[in-house]
Structure formats: C-alpha cells, structure tokens
Amino acid sequence: MPDKKPLLSVVLPCRNQGDYIEGVLESWLPALSSTGISFEMVVVPNACTDSTPEAARKAAVRHPEIHVVENPRGGWGLSVMTGLRAARGEILCYTNSARTNPAVISPLLALYQANAPCLAKVSRVNRGAPLREAGSALFNMEARRFFGVGVSDVNGTPKMFPRSLFENVTLESDGDLLDLELMALVRRMGMAVVEHQVEGFVRHGGKSSTNWKTALRMFAGSWALYRRLNDPRRPSVPGRE
C-alpha cells in the first residue's frame, strides 16, 4: 500500500467469485484512474468457500491500489463495515462487486462533488427481473412509510459519502439491512441524498444468492431495525434532530 492517503476509497465485498474476481478488480482500475483523483480499492472476501481471497491477493500484488481485508464471519453489512473501517480515503464508497459496472463511478463522483456534503447513490430503474422488482418496490414503500427514507432504490449501490458520515453514525446491521439502516440515519442527520439513475447492472458471473427467503428475512428484519432505531435509550445522531 502506498504511504500517501488516497482521496477516494471504494469498498468491494465479494463472495465466491474466485473464477472471475481478478478480472473484475482490474476492470475497476481504469474507471477509477479516469476520475483524476487518488484512490484505493478495499476488497473484502465475504466468508468465501472458494479461491476468492487468493485471487484477490494476486491482484493486490500486481496493483498497489488494491488492499484485501477478509470478513470470515460473513454478511453483507459486516463486509461493508469491515471495508469502511480499513478504508483511508476522505470520500468513502461501497458497492456490489458482482453486479456494478465500474463506468458508473465517474458520474457518481461528479454528482457527489457537486452536492457535497451529501450521500450520492445509484438508483436502478430496470433490474430485468419482475419478481425482484416487485419485492424491491414493496421494500422501498416500507422504507418510505416507516423510516421516512424518500429514495426510489434503498439498496442501490454504489453509495458514496464523506468519511465524517461514517465516523458520526453507528451502523449495527451485519446483514442485508445495512443499506436501510444507513439511509434511515442519513435522513435523521438531515444530510442531502442525491441519486444517479441507471438502467440496471448485469452480473459479471456466478449466481445470485438473493431469493424469496432473503426478501422475507429483510421484511421481517426491518421491523426489528425500526424498533432499535426508535428506542428512546438510543443516542441521537448528529444533525438537525
């Protein structure tokens, strides 16, 4: 790792992508270089049972911008937080490494810089799967109704925000509800949220682990999150409240 701290840190959790993760990571390098700012990629193998960690480390040997930190326990939320804790940049970003097109990072960064301090995120307009789109619509309605999160795609990534945001909130969701928790806390802080719309992303390889059981867990888990965030004993977050 270079000694000089980068301006932008991109956290990329990955699970069982050993067959193609090296190519995915290397596809990010020209996209990030085109932004004209210093950057690092924090790759987080997420309880992998294949060669993903070894493949990621091979890429890190070739490219000093890549840093690998593992999450052996597993979980999307914990993987994101593991990467964010290891990140050194002043602008933090995380995204789904299996689906995200690296080309989106440049317009998202421009949107962030034009509105900073803010949380800039991608909003997927067409996900190409009717059942998944229906489940997403219901989940976003729940987020709006119970958490006051007024965005069209709560789980859309990449998400980009200042380091100060991560340092001033306490994220506790180890699993799939991390995005909802973050968006709810951002709303409470009164920080602006700006969205960059995309048609949707094509998976780079492998098979998604998201299914109807995952969706049911997220719907049920959101109620537990609602109770936790509204516990009167919970410390308030910095901001307008």
Notable traits:
alpha/beta; Spore Coat Polysaccharide Biosynthesis Protein SpsA, Chain A; 241 residues; 41% helix
- Uncertain runs with pLDDT below 50, 5 residues or more? none
What is the strand arrangement across the widest sheet? Answer: 3-2-1-4-6-5-7
User: What is the name of the CATH class?
Assistant: Alpha Beta
* Biggest β-sheet description: 7 strands, mixed
Number of helices, where a helix is a run of at least 4 consecutive DSSP H or I residues: 8
Mean pLDDT: 91
Total domain units: 1
From the N-terminal CA to the C-terminal CA, the straight-line distance is 40 Å
Radius of gyration: 17 Å
Percent helix: 40-55%
Tell me the total number of β-strands: 7
Order of helices and strands: EHEHEHEHEHEHHEH
- CATH level-3 fold name: Spore Coat Polysaccharide Biosynthesis Protein SpsA, Chain A
Q: State the fourth-level CATH superfamily.
A: Spore Coat Polysaccharide Biosynthesis Protein SpsA, Chain A
CATH architecture: Alpha-Beta Complex
Strand content: 15-25%
Structural class by helix and strand composition:
alpha/beta
| Large-scale geometry | globular
